[in-house]
Amino acid sequence: MNAAPRSAENGRAGAGPGDGLDWAGHLAQFGRALRERGVRVALSDEADGLEALIWIDLSDRDEVRRALAVAFKIRPHDRAAFDELFERLWAPPSAPKQVSQALGQVTRQRSGGVRPAAEAIEVDAASPSGEELGYSPDAVLRKKPFDECAPEDLAAMENLIARLALRLATRKSRRLVPTRGRGAVDLRRSFRRALAHGGEFLALARRARPLEQPRLLVLADTSGSMDPHVRFLLQFVVALGRVAPKAEIFAFNTSLVRITPLLRPKTLAPGLIEATLARLAAEVPDWSGGTRIGECLREFVDRHLATRVDHRTVVLIFSDGLDRGDVAPIAEAMRALSDRAKSILWLNPLAGDARYEPSARAMAAALPYVDRLLPAHNLESLERLVPHLSL
């Protein structure tokens, strides 16, 4: 169902988003209503909510709900009030056309009209899965290999990657957990409750799928052979760090460096990716230099494995697997990671070539302990990664 704001004053469904509604004003109204119910929502959260509307499919009412819940940092005990006010203050627009118009309007309010043309946005709105039905600048950029991207592609890619990361942040788990709000009826728990009250069903127990909180460990190769890809892969890593609070991020080349503190949400803002990458390049020794994959993985195992990895952790290794050093440490470290982690995903930019074979000595040594060897040569390949991060 499509989502558009409803007037808080009279409870009447407002005109569609294409009818000139002030989305920033409606979000402020929604935030004010939440604060009146005792839910803590800051002005910065409202700004995050406005930005979230840029990156999501406005035709999906549940996605709008989840995106605003993430942007407003809704706590579990406030979820019932949030859901109630969302139902009361937001309603479906009258036509799909209005969704794309709304997205264009929100974008112009936020960024001054620098996003793609309305017709390209409309195609994306009509295709919530992200598979465009025709030409659009975004569709071309999604398929463009990272090593063919020009510097001016960086800003446009940042927008697409931010949207991809938000999809991860608003992804629901496949597990059902007890909830006090809306959800499917849990008959077993409902009967148990009734037995405690003399067989009377005073209230039905319910279960719902919570938002996923994936526990991620990212090990990013920043050696010279990864240089054509690393700028864009690190954009993805930065975006992951912003939406996955449990993510731990390390860079490695000839040494291992924990860069999680450099990527905390409070230290970043949209449009600052260039400055962030420059800071990383300055603070990570031997950036774009040599590589010692085995030694770096072994250092991680020795120093961080026990505290940074558990049975729920998905390990992401971004590397082309090119290393002329001793491969014995690679096999030993990968075995230790495999024994402790939930899964290991190795993202290799070279795997985007259909002729690629993992025959390099380092890659071959790691492969027996890798759950999935996936390509990471363009944005489309990173999009396919999201389902593998499910709990």
Describe the structure using short key phrases.
about 400 residues; alpha/beta; Rossmann fold; 3 domains; 6-stranded mixed sheet; 3-stranded antiparallel sheet; 16 helices
Structural class: alpha/beta
How far apart are the termini? 26 Å
Instruction: Order the strands across the largest sheet as they lie in space.
Output: 8-7-6-9-10-11
Order of helices and strands: EHHHHEHHHHEEHEEHEEHHHEHEHEH
Residue-averaged pLDDT, rounded? 74
What's the overall geometry?
Answer: globular
Helix fraction bin: 40-55%
Question: Any overview of this molecule?
Answer:
This protein is an alpha/beta fold. The chain has 3 domains: 137 residues, no CATH class; 32 residues, no CATH class; 175 residues, 3-Layer(aba) Sandwich (Rossmann fold). Helix content is 45%, strand content 11%. The protein has 16 helices and 11 strands. The strands form 3 sheets. It has a 6-stranded mixed beta sheet with strand order 8-7-6-9-10-11, with helices on both faces. A 3-stranded antiparallel beta sheet has the order 3-5-4. A two-stranded antiparallel sheet has the order 1-2. Strand 7 and strand 8 form a beta hairpin. It is globular, with a radius of gyration of 23 Å. The two termini are 26 Å apart. About 16% of the residues have low confidence.
